[in-house]
Specification:
The protein has 10 helices and no strands. The protein has 147 residues and is an all-alpha fold. It starts with a helix and ends with a helix. 29% of the residues are buried.
């Protein structure tokens, strides 16, 4: 798993350079570079039997969206910009767990160097640089309905 995450990160870094994201979008670039960690976290949530079923079901739905080639912003057609909506959806999911006092159940599975909350807060702060207001509203409604 570590090797595939590193391979994905290398692919993503190359695509970020190709997409021409410059210094002015440094926060967005950092958000995009965290995609492999968030994908790994979703997989870990599904594998850990200690995680409540409600969280696992939502994580499974988000993972399906993350890897689906025909989501609202598909990577297959858009390249790096297609990852933006995926990581934003994961960040909204984690923010919802935090607001319900359930984040600690998945925090122990996080493999990033910085704290999990700091990582997804950065993504939430970059909302306007990542996705349209319409997509953000759609995600928020979907997650609200999943509760």
């Amino acid at each position: 798993m570590e090797e595939s995450r590193e391979t994905y990160l290398a692919w993503l870094n190359a695509r970020v350079r190709e997409a021409g994201l410059k210094e002015t979008n440094k926060d967005v670039v950092l958000c995009l570079q965290s995609a492999p960690l968030f994908l790994s976290l979703l997989l870990a949530i599904l594998r850990d039997s200690r995680i409540p079923g409600e969280i696992q079901r939502t994580a499974a739905s988000i993972l399906s969206y993350f890897i689906l080639p025909t989501d609202l912003s598909p990577e297959a057609f858009l390249g790096v910009p297609g990852v933006k909506d995926d990581i934003f959806l994961v960040a909204l999911f984690l923010d919802g767990l935090r607001s319900r006092g359930m984040l600690d159940s998945v925090e122990k599975l996080w493999k990033g160097e910085e704290p999990l909350e700091q990582s997804f807060d950065r993504i939430l702060a970059c909302e306007t640089g990542l996705i349209s207001p319409e997509i953000a509203a759609t995600f928020r409604k979907a997650l609200q309905a999943a509760r």
